[in-house]
Each structure stands twice: as C-alpha cells, then as structure tokens.
Fold these 3 entries.
Entry 1:
Amino acid sequence: MNPRETIKKDRNNSLFWKISATFLVLLVVLGVMYVLITGYIANDYFQEVNQRLYGQIADSTVQLVRPLVDGEVDTLAVQEIMHSMMVINPSVEVYLLDVEGRIITYVAPYKRVKLDKVALRPIREFIDSGERKPFIKGDDPRHPGQKKVFSAAPIEEEGQLAGYMYIILASEEQHSVVSMLSGSYMLRLGRDWFFVTLVGALAAGLLALWYLTSNLRRIIEKVRRFKEGDLQARIEAREMGDFPLLSNTFNDMADKIVGNIQQLQAVENLRRELIANVSHDLRTPLAILQGYVETLLIKDETISTDNRRRYLNLALDSSEKLAHLIEQLFEYSKLEAKQIEPNKEPFFISELAQDIYQKYQVLGRSKGIHLRLQLAPNLPLVFADLALVERVLQNLMDNALKFTPEGGTVTIELQEAGHHVEVRVADTGPGIPESEQSYIFERYHKGGPTDKKSKGAGLGLAIAKKILELHNSTIQVHSKLNEGTSFEFNLPAYSG
C-alpha cells in the first residue's frame, strides 16, 4: 500500500478513533465517579449502621453512672467511665455537655478538642426521635466543620434537664483506621477489578463502534469517490445501515449535482450552437448589404438610376431582415430569462383574428396564397395578454405563408372548447416529417418542406411556444407530408 492510500485510509478511520478516544475518556471518568460515589455511599452506610447499633449507648451510660451530683460534675466517675468506654470501644468519643451545648468534660489528649460548644439541634432531634433513631450527624468537637454520627441522652437532676451525654460514634482513631483500610481496599479494587473491567468494557465498546461505523466508512468511501470524479458513485440500500437519511441525502445531492452538470453541458452546447447559428444568420444579410453598398460605391458614376434604386431597395430589405432577426433574438432571450410578464386582460379573440386576417391578405395575394377565416358564433372573451397573443398569431402566419406553395391555402380557425377558445392556424404546405415534429419548437431549428434542415434562426415557433407557456398553455402540431400542417393552442375564456 502506497503512502497516499495509507493517508486516505487513516483519514477515513479518523472518526472511529475520535469516537473511541471519547468513549475511553467517558469510560474512565464514569468508572472513577462510580468508585468514588460507591465509597461515599458505603461510608454513609457504615455510619448509619453504626448509629443504629450504638444509638442507645448514651442512655445506657447515663443510667449506669450519675454524671452530675447536686448540680456538680462528678469528674472522677465521669472520666473513669469515659476512659473505660473508649478503651473498650475505640470508635467512640464521650463528651459531657451542659444545657446550652458547651463541653463540660471529656477524655482526650491536650488540645485535641477544638470546639467548646456543639449545636444542640441535631441532639434534640435525636433524643425526640425515640427508640427508632434516625440517621443524624452532629458536630465533631475534634474537627470543626465535620459532621459525624453520634448517640445522645439527656441528663436530668430532680426532673430538670441538667445537660447531655454526647458520644461520637465515629472517633478520630476509627476514622484513621477506616481511611487506611479504605485506601488499601480501593487500591485492591482498582488494581484487581477496576482496570480489568475498564479494559473489557473498552474492548467491547471498540468492537461495537467498529461494527456500527462500518456502514459509515462505506458511505465515506462513496463520498470520496464522488469527490474524486466518479459521478456514478451512489450509496446502495444495503450499505445505508443506520444512516438512511444521510445516505438518501447524499444520493439526492449527487443526482442533483450530476443533473446540474448535464444542464451546464447542455447550456454550453446551446451557447456554441447559438454563436454558430447567429453568426450564420447575421452573416447572410450583412454580406448582401455589404455587397450592394460596395457595388454602389464602385459603380457610382456608371450605374443607372433604375439599378441604383434596385440595389438600394435590396440593401434596405437586407437591413430590415437583419433588424428583424436581432429583434427576435432579443425577444426570445427575454422570454427565456422570464423577463416578460403577461399583462392579462379580457378581449375578443375573434376581433384580433379578423385584424390578423386583414393584415396578411395583401401578403397572401402577392404569393398566390388564399387566406380563410373561420369563426364560431358567439365566441366568449379570452383572458390573456393581447399583444403577446397577437405576436403568436403573427409568427404562426409568417411560418404558414413561408412554407405554403403558390395556390395553397392558409386558414385561421377559432372555436369554443369548454371553458377555453381553441385557436388553429393551418396550411396546405408540404408538411413536416414526424421525426422532426418534436424539434420544430427548438430555437435555431428550421424544418424545411421536406425535412431539409437548414442552418438558420427559426425563432418564430420557439417564441410562440414561450409566450403560450406564460399563459399556462401549450401549442400542438399536426402534420402529414404533402398534406399540410396545423398548429393549435387554447386560451382560457374570461369568466368575469
């Protein structure tokens, strides 16, 4: 495997390693938190058990010895019993309190006891709870700020409260021993089980991640192939796994990108065709115009008046054709760019058809072509752009007169069809081959009388098609060779 392939493979697996590292960190953090929380809960559990077992020790002590005699502390007796209790049970520390919580006496090395007074609220709550002692912590005189489980009992003299017996059930010595053993236990737990569990969970997690991300790696590979130019790369259904949304989104995006590329290629081909066709169409009238102008300049002194006028008329005709071609190009480009919005209004399509018929009568007679107008009675108004519909009819008439031979007929027919008015322009020309009928509305395509395609700007039908699309209508062609051609479209009737 070459270095480049290795880099690509590592790049594809980077997500797996990132997830694995994150999983490892989370696993370690959760493991440590679990051990700490377990230790904390175990400590509280031990203290609660201790308090429930020895909760009555203060009552028993008070009943065994009278700490106060005539309002005075029997120091010798109290300290003797305190010392005996702490020797027998090193986990306790015994204190004698007055009614306000001040420490009267205790048994402890010098300066080991830091507090002079403890809070009475936990003590009273403990005493008031009766035999079922709750889990309550009180002040630790040796460690200010720390709370420990305790046992407490009131000391009464002649029915009056004289003080409290306050016994810490988790002594400083016990705490030291527990801490030492706890540390040793935690160490053994971590060494013998925690890391074994951690490694096992990590291995299982990595295997699970590897399996779960296998489909993702295949998806990444398909994306990489598409990026490198394989436009046919797609994610198959069996490769989607747990990522159907991602896979379908990529497939849709890839299809759209490929479609856009194909559209761009088609636009580029049309652009080249446009340049070629426009160059050809502009060259012909320009060449004719240039030829006659040059002839007039060269033969200026010898040319007769009649020839001069004829040449000027021919040059004028070429310039008019050139202007008409340029006008068509601008009109079609505006329609294609959707820069023209139809100004729809109700009007009588029959009156427009009569105007078109009258305008083309002269041109038809000059070519020996008979024009007919067939109007159904009581035609309704249509709702459309009058100027644009007139442009459609003019283009269809121009096309019909162009290909209809002398002695032929061109017919304009209007009839009502439901909520529409059907417009039909037919001729008796040579017709259009069936193989060419789907192309005649494309720009720069001219279908000749016998399917002889000539390079030239056949924009009339393309413009008509675009205008009708603005009116949510379509144009249809029906043609047979040597019989003629008809173009039909519908316009909505005005319902207001």
Entry 2:
Amino acid sequence: EREMSLAMDEEIVEESIENVEFHDLSPEFFRLSPVPREWYSEQTKSISELGQSQDRKGVPEALGDRLTKHGAGNVVVIDSIADLVGARNADLPFSDIPVLMKGLSRAAHEWGGLILVHVNNETLDDQQHGQLVDAADGTLLFEWESGGSARARTMIVQQFRGVLSRIEDENIVRFETEIGDAGFDISDVRKIR
C-alpha cells in the first residue's frame, strides 16, 4: 500500500486498496538461505518449533497453491518470475520456467483470470528472455526514452497472441506512459520535450 501511494494519487489508492490482496512467499523463498528468519518472518520460531513445522513447501508449490486458491476471476501479478530460478529450495531449472508460464496461461484461461508476470530482462540472457516471451500470450516492454531535457517512460506491445500479427507494422507504436493523479495513462501521442 505504501509503495502504491508513492506512485499514485492517494485517493486512487484508498479507493482500490480494499480489493487488493498481497501474498508473500518470503518464508518459502528464504527458508534455506542465509537470511535471518526475523527479517522475513513475522514471528521468530524457537529451535523446537522449527523442527515441528510441517510446512516445507518450495516456492513453485506455494505459488501453485496460492494461485489455485485465489486465481479464479482475479488479476494476479507475479513479481518476479526470475525469483523462481533464484530460490535456493526451488529445484526448478530455468528450462522449466517457460513450461510453468504456459501452464499459468492455460490455468488463467480456465479460471477466467489474468496473470501478469514481471521479469527484468537484464537478469536474463537473450535466449532465456526469448523463451519467456514465446511462452507468454502477450508481452509489454517498458523502457525509458530520452528526448531533449526530459525522460519519458514508454511501453511497446511486443507480442499479443492472435492480435499483433494482424496489425500492420506502421500501426505498432511506442506508447508514452505516465502514472499521474488519474492513474496509469497510456498515450500514442508523442510529446515534444
């Protein structure tokens, strides 16, 4: 909520926050890492309690459980898919991530939901990024573009399965985006800076 209020008008955040639910996979992600438990867990367990814990799920299994329980009819944002590879207890090689994404796409279609998956393309090589783009139904690329003395955040629709192939190249444009008082604004009108 705090991060949202830094990026958007407080009134928009206040009106929408009651419909937003956050799910934290920190316990599964950090369990086998050197990160101290009190940094990611609300309660520090004693040594005896740690041994009694039956919840030994890895990140992919915990993600699957949460999506199965809460995904139907909802918009789900996963930040970030690259974290699944970085999780120490994931046992998930990168080659399984595109397969997982195709499964997510199929599940979202059946559930009547939408799953948005964030990935920082700088964390991947070109081949890995290409595999993720190919596994997705649609791909939006956000970049900073410099023009004159100001920078603009732009968005490109790189892929949109079933739609983009029917649009002529000259009609595929770089959209300028902005988060303002009215929310997320997308414009295909170029501003002179």
Entry 3:
Amino acid sequence: MPPNNALYVLVKASHFMVFASATIVTGILGWFLHRTSAQNTHVIFQETVAAVTVPAYLGHLVFAQVDSYYEQSLMVGLAFSYLWLTSFIFAAQDWTGGRCASAFPRGSSCSQKKAVVAFDFLAFFFLVFGMLIKGYLKYTQNKKNRTQRREYTDGVISTSENAMRSA
C-alpha cells in the first residue's frame, strides 16, 4: 500500500463527487432541455460540460492510482476545472439574485435551477481539491525519488572511490 493511503482515498472520493455532481447536473439540465423547445446557450454549454465529465471521471475513478496517469490526470482536471467554473458562473448569473422565476426555462422549479448552481459549484470545488491533492502526492513522490537517487548515487561514488583507493 502507498504510504499516503488516506490521500489516495481522498483523491478517489473527490473523483466520485465530481462524477456524482456531473451526473446530477446532466439529469436536471437534460430534463430542462427535453421539456422545452427553446434553446439557451448557457444551458447547452452546462449540459455539454456535465455530459463530457461523466465518462471522463468514470475513467478517473478506475485509473486514479496509476502512477503514469498523474500528469495527464492533472491536465484533464485543469481543463475541466475551467469548464466547471464557467458553468457555475453561467448558472449563478442566470438563476440567482431574483432572476430564477423569469429565466430559462420558464415554469421550471427554482429549486431545480438552484440545485444545478450548487452541483456546478461542488463539481468545481472537488475538481480543484482533487488536483491539489494529486499535485501534493506527485510532489512528495518526486521528492522521495530524488532523495533515493541521491543516496544511491552517493553510495556508488563512495564505493568506486574506495575501489580506486585500494588499487
């Protein structure tokens, strides 16, 4: 088991929360789009981000502890964090501050619209949280590898120096 087992569990939990939030947002926004014939670019953007996140983070749940996957995972997380931040901003602009009842889709419950805002924020938060933990894990792993290489190199140098001195 890795020495930072609790941090790996937090990474997996973070990925699961992103996956769950994206699934909920996909369901609510899909229902909005299904009920109305009018199209709203903010809602379509949010639905697209959520729908693309679901399979991506399902893969992250499977490959969260693969060492060679960390760099790609951090880059994917960075890209998705910007998309989710934009989605959250769109939802907050459209559905908070007294604009909920009159905003697209009209006639839909404000509680559902506010749920989208909340789960957009949760997805963004857990994306950033997971990236920070993965970055810390990668930093500590690289630091440990550098220390081990230095010790190995020091051992080789001292061994070869001893061999040269005895000859």
